[in-house]
Structures are given as structure tokens and as C-alpha cells.
Design brief:
The structure is a homodimer of 238-residue chains. Chain A is of the alpha+beta class. Chain A is built from 8 helices and 11 strands. Helices cover 28% and strands 34% of the residues of chain A. Chain A binds a DNA duplex (19 and 19 nucleotides) through helix 3.
Chain lengths: 238, 238
DNA sequence: CAGTGGTCTAGACCACCTA
DNA sequence: AGGTGGTCTAGACCACTGG
């Protein structure tokens, strides 16, 4: 574990547990440097990370302050930036994955473009219903190149694909590009998510790439409008 | 202008103009350090920023590569992280703002909580219809404390509030917290945005704070589902 | 003025990848 | 082994804030 991560984790814990309450100033970088026995620039790196998470903000010339808990957001919110996937966010015991279709196919030109691969490269075409506490929650349509995610089984689909990629295949995620939109319900939404004739749907369309730059996933995740929102924290100047 | 910003801007320009094409390796940090006559750590800081923007990715031990243009996204997408506002994104000449209501009020407890102010603190209650190329685009309901944004006039509302805050009041934005959801259309949506009886709506609810940590805006922006999406780039490990 | 965070350096050392 | 990016340091200097 890197030093700046240890420092960030420690300070984050203090903020969340109330040791450093909202709107108050936290110790300055020099004090942290002494406490953790590191240089000031390493403390700064840790604080930069916390600022990007929206936990603190820094006023040059004044100090570093805890940012009050922001009163938006409900229980079913998901951070728009998260690689851990639904299972890790809500807890493995609460999430149930039901594979609806699991097929091998050649990608359409549109899908091949998103995955940045040839149309001759075999991909999985996976449709899963994700349930939360036994109730239909998200309908997830995923394409993945077989080459990058070999030996995918029905058993894995019932759990977490991300867990398989990360823990078993030892692949690291590099990043994701997501587009969030609203849309009208499809027949599948009505069938699997209990959407009504005109229930608004929220859809997240995403391309995920690995640390080595290869696109590993193109997927759409749909949920009924009042079941889930996405949240974005955005900090100026980083 | 800081050195790392100059370097980042220069390299960004080279990527966007095709000097460094997608999927190719760019010069290593040592070369950039010599070219710009800075230390390697300053080059790294510039590259970190570009990586967060999703332009490049780095493979430790191998090099730094240009990330191919991602094929999601349409004309009306907005980056979910943007402080410049609609006018700057789409161009002042294309955006028209029509103030529908512009009132002084005491905030409801719910609004006061979002703005982190007392219910005795006067706020503006602003409803604006934003038009793009003359067509209704976004319905924006904004609350702002009068104390932080004094002397707001109808004329400013017809242009860009953000421009006024940034250029005239010389206030810097610190960050924003956004929640994105789908919802059913309201009567206002039908009246001003030409939404039908059941047209799905996309809503962005946000709290914006200044560099000094004070909450300056609580707003909701609504648009018809197929008119606009929001995009998020998300990079692992920063 | 003193105190804060921000930038930048030269250089050491480590982790990782390819060969 | 050689090259890449990543971490970390000690310390200099600057920009900004408040009293």
C-alpha cells in the first residue's frame, strides 16, 4: 500500500467518523507530514485525492476544510464512477443475477466499433436481470470479447462478472466512458422490470477498458426511473 | 499559466490534431521533460491530468498511449462535469435564455438544506427556459442565495448566470454534486418543452459550491429524453 | 507580517514490462 | 538488462489570505 493511500484512508476515516466535523478546518499539511512521518508533498497528494472525492476543499492561504455532507441522493444511488459493480455496491447477499440469454456471436458493426474490434472477433452477448432484495432492479445487456474474458460460465453470470475479471483473471480496469440518458420503455423492460406502458427508463450506456487499453465491455444498463439515480462529483481544477 | 498546464495543453492539442494518433505511444516523460525544459515530475503531473480527461492511458513499464476516440455520444451530449454552463458548451449565439419567473423568496426547509443556509436567508427563485437554435431545450429551476450573487438582473438571466458569477463577481467555482435521474413529465415540461403526456424526462439535480466552500446554487435541469444525454469519463486509480 | 496551500526541482529508489 | 512509469524526499520559492 502506498503511503499517500494510507494517509488518504486514515483521514477519510476521520472525516466520516466525525473526528473532523463538516465545515471545520483540518490540521495543516505540515502537521500531517509530521504525524505520518512523510514529506509535505506526499500529504498534498493524499489530500488532492480526498478533494476529488468531494470530502474536503482547500483554500490556498487559509487551510483545508471538511465539506459538509451533501443532502442530495437517496438509498439507491450509484456513484457514476465505480468499477466494483452492483454486487460490491449493494452487497453480494442483496444482489441476485439471473442470466436471461448467454450467447456467442460475431459483433454487429455497431458493437464492434464500441469494442474497437473486428466483426470477426467472437463476443459474448449477455442479457442479465439484476435483482435487489429479490425484486427486479436492472436489466443489463453486455458485450465482451471472448478473447479478453475467456471461460465465462453460467455460474459466473449468476454472480459478479467484475469479480471474475478482477480476482480470477487478474485484469485491472483502466477506465470507463459512460453516457446517461432517459428513454421510453421497451418490451423487455415491461417483461422483466415490470415497467408500465409509458414508464420512463434510465439507461447507462458504457464502454469499459482495461489498464492495457483494450476495450473489454460495451453494455447498457436500464432501470425504472424511480428505482435508481446516478451521482457525479465534480471538483474544479484537478 | 502554470508549467504543467502549458504542457498539458500542448500535448492535448497534439492528440486532438492527430500528431499523436490513437493507440500509438507518445514520447516518454524524459523526452517531454527535455522538450519543455522541466523536471520529469512536472511532465507526470500534466500527463495525469490528460489521463483523467480520458485522452491517454499509461502502462507502467511500457509507455503512455493515446486512447482512441470513444464512439459513444452524440451532438447534444454534455459532459456531466462542466462549470462553464450551457452557453459556453454550445456557443452563446446558439443559446437563448428566457426567464419565466424571477422571484425573491425565503427558501423552503428542503431548499435551505441543499444550500446549507438558514430559511431566513433570501434566495432567488428562478425558472428559465433555455433554447437551442430557437427550440425549447432545457427547463432550469435555480435557487441561489442573494448574498452570494448580488444585483442579479433580468438582463443577466437572458444570458449566462455563470458568466456573471465568474467574470463580473470574480467568484471561482469549487465543485458540484450532481444527481441524474429519469422522471415523468410535469405540466411545466408539457407547457414549455413540448413534452407529451408520457414523454420520459431526464433531470439533473445539482448543488454547486464556490471555491470558498459556500453553496451557491441548487438547481434542477430537465430536458426531453431524446434531446440530451450526460457523459461521464471515469479513470481508475487517481 | 506569519501562515497556509501550490508549484517545481534534482535525484534516489521501486515496480513493472519486454526481451 | 534496459527502459518505462510511479513514489517519495528535502527544500526552495511563489501566491494567497487574514490580521
Amino acid at each position: 500500500m502506498k503511503k499517500y493511500q494510507v494517509i488518504a484512508n486514515t483521514i477519510r476515516k476521520r472525516i466520516l467518523s466525525g473526528v473532523y466535523p463538516p465545515k471545520t478546518m483540518i490540521p495543516d499539511q505540515k502537521q500531517f507530514a509530521e504525524e505520518f512521518d512523510v514529506s509535505m508533498i506526499t500529504v498534498k497528494k493524499a489530500l488532492d485525492g480526498l478533494a476529488r472525492e468531494g470530502l474536503i476543499f482547500k483554500k490556498s492561504g487559509l487551510g483545508t476544510f471538511v465539506l459538509g455532507k451533501i443532502p442530495l441522493g437517496g438509498t439507491y444511488d450509484s456513484p457514476a464512477n465505480a468499477f466494483d459493480g452492483l454486487s460490491a455496491q449493494q452487497g453480494t447477499d442483496r444482489v441476485d443475477s439471473v442470466p436471461l440469454t448467454f450467447e456467442l456471436a460475431f459483433p454487429t458493426p455497431a458493437v464492434a466499433e464500441k469494442l474497437d474490434c473486428k466483426t470477426s472477433e467472437p463476443v459474448y452477448d449477455i442479457l442479465r436481470l439484476r435483482k435487489l432484495d429479490g425484486k427486479p432492479f436492472i436489466l443489463e445487456h453486455t458485450y465482451m470479447p471472448v478473447r479478453l474474458v475467456p471461460d465465462l460460465t453460467d455460474g459466473i453470470l449468476k454472480g459478479s462478472i467484475y469479480h471474475y475479471i478482477h480476482e480470477d483473471l487478474k485484469l485491472a480496469f483502466g477506465g470507463a466512458y459512460r453516457q446517461i440518458h432517459a428513454s421510453e420503455p421497451t418490451d423487455q423492460d415491461r417483461q422483466y422490470l415490470n415497467a408500465g406502458e409509458h414508464t420512463p427508463m434510465l439507461e447507462v450506456e458504457q464502454v469499459v477498458w482495461l489498464a492495457n487499453g483494450e476495450n473489454v465491455e460495451y453494455s447498457t444498463s436500464r432501470n425504472v426511473f424511480d428505482q435508481r439515480s446516478y451521482t457525479v462529483i465534480d471538483v474544479n481544477d484537478f
